[in-house]
Amino acid sequence: MDQYLSERIKKLSESQTIAMARRSRELQAEGIDVISLSLGEPDLNAPEHVKEAAKKAIDEDWSHYPPVAGYPELRKAISDKFKRQNGLNYSPEQILVSTGAKQSLANVILSLVNPGDEVIILAPYWVSYLELVKLAGGKAKFVTAGIDTDFKSSAAELDEAINEDTKLIIFSSPSNPTGTYYTKSELEGFAKVIAKYPNVFAISDEIYEHINFSGKHESLAQFPEVYEQVITVNGVSKAYAMTGYRIGYIGAPLWITKACDKMQGQITSGANTIAQRASIEAVNTSEEWLSEMCSIFEKRRELVTDLFSNIEGFKTNMPGGAFYLFPEVSALFGHSFNGQEVNNSNDLCMFFMNECHVAMVPGEAFGAPGYVRMSYATSESNLKEAAKRIKIGVEKLLHH
Ligand SMILES: Cc1ncc(COP(=O)(O)O)c(C=O)c1O
Fold it and tell me: Is the confidence at residue 107, as pLDDT, over 90?
C-alpha cells in the first residue's frame, strides 16, 4: 500500500539512531546482553525538585490547554536564563516553547525554508537536520570537517558555501555527533561571515550547552551584527536529564517566533502542561546540579577516550562537550570475519552488534561515512566492558 503514501513521507529516512536502538532491543529480547552506546540521552534521572514540580502540577490541575507559545512564567524563566547564562537579550515574547528541541527545529525550518532554498549544514551533523530540511523541500549543502580539525569548519569554508540560494545555516555546538564546541572567537568568525548576507539565517542548536568540559559555552546570537539573523535553539532534555518531558524552546527575532507560533498552533498547540510546569523549576535550577552532571560526563570522557584510543583502528580526538566520541575507523574497512564483510561504518556497526553485542551508530547517519558514534552516557563499567568486547572483535576482524 506504500504507493498511496505522499512523496514527502517516502523521501524521509527513518532515524538510524532509533533503528540501531531497536535492533539492540531485539537482541536483548532474545536474552543477549547488549551494551548500548547508541542512545543520545543522559543515563541520569531528572532532578528531584523537578519531579516534585511535575507532581504538584498534576495536583494543582494544570490540565487545560496551555497557550501555544508556552506558559508566561516559563517563557519568562527562559528569557531570564538566556540573560543570566548566555548574555542574550530575548524578551519573553521572543521565546517559543515546543515539544522538544526537535519540534523547535521543525518549526523554524518549516517557517523559513521554501522548496529549492539551500540550507548549509555543518557536517558531521545531527540526523534530523537533514530530514527536516528535506521535509521543507530545501536542498541541503554540507560544509564538512574531519577529525584532523577536531571536526571544526572554518569561517572561510562557510563563506565559500554561501550563494544567492542560501537561506539557512544549521549547526550544533557542542555538537552531536562529535562533541566539538566552538569557541567565542570561532563563532565571531562565523558571525562576521553571516552578517555579510542579511538574507541568510542561522540556527544555533545549543541543546548540549551545559555539557562542556573546557570552558564557558558561547552563543552565536551574542554578536550584535547577527542577532537579527540567529535563532537560538535549546531545551531541558540534555541539561536536566528530562528527555521524556519533551520540552524545547527557541529565542529568536520576534517575527520568526510569531511564525513558529502559527506553525505550532496548527500542528501540536502548546507543549504538555505538566512538563512545562516542571521545566520552570528545571530552568531555574541552581548551577550546582549542572556542574555535578558535567563532571560525571567529564570523567567518563577521559575513560572512554583512553580505552578506545588504545584499540587498533580507532583514531580518536578529545571531544570538548556533549557525551559522544566520534572516532575515525576506516582502517577497519576491507576486512572480514566469519562471513561478515566490513566495508563501511554500517557494516562495522553491524559486526560490532553481532560479534561483540555492542551497539554504536554508523557515521553514515551523520554524513560522516568513515566514523562511528559512541555515546558515553552509560556507566563506567559498561564502557569498560564495551571496550573489552570491541578490542576482541577488532582482533578477530584484523588478524583472523
Ligand atoms: C543536536 C541535537 N539537537 C536537538 C535534539 C533534540 O532534543 P529534544 O529531545 O529536546 O527534542 C537532540 C537530541 O538528540 C540533539 O542531539
Answer: yes
The answer to whether the bond into 327 is cis (omega within 30° of 0) is: no
Cα 240 to middle of ligand 1, angstroms: 13
- Which ligand 1 atom is at minimum distance from the Cα of 41? 14
Query: What separation in angstroms does the CA of 163 have from each of 111, 171, 173, 197, 227?
Result: 20, 18, 24, 9, 21
Q: Which of 170, 181, 154, 145 is nearest to 328 (CA)?
A: 145
The protein residue whose alpha carbon is closest to atom 7 in ligand 1 is 101
Read off the pTM. 0.96
Is the beta carbon of 235 within 6 A of some atom in ligand 1?
Answer: yes
User: Residue 105 Cα, ligand 1 centroid: separation in angstroms?
Assistant: 9
Q: Is 118 left (phi over 0), alpha (psi -120 to 50) or beta?
A: beta
- Nearest atom in ligand 1 to 103's CA: 11
Ligand 1 atom closest to 126 (CA): 1
**Extents of the domains making up the chain:** 2-45+288-399, 52-285
Can you identify the CATH homologous superfamily of domain 2-45+288-399?
Aspartate Aminotransferase, domain 1 (3.90.1150.10)
Mean pLDDT of 59-70: 98
**Please, what CATH class does the domain formed by 52-285 belong to?**
alpha beta
- Least confident among 241-255, 261-275, 335-349: 335-349
Closest by CA to 282, choosing from 65, 97, 103, is 97
Tell me, in angstroms, the distance from the centre of ligand 1 to residue 176's CA. Answer: 8
One-character DSSP codes across 255-294? HHHHHHHHHHHHHT-SPPHHHHHHHHHHHT--HHHHHHHH
CA of 228 to the centre of ligand 1 (A): 23
Reported as a pLDDT band with limits 50, 70 and 90, residue 146 is: very high
Is the CB of 237 inside a 6 Å radius of any atom of ligand 1? yes
Model confidence pLDDT, tens digit, residues 175-197? 999 999 999 999 999 999 999 99
At 330-372, the pLDDT tens digits run: 999 999 998 999 999 999 998 999 899 999 999 999 999 999 9
Return the pLDDT at 40: 84
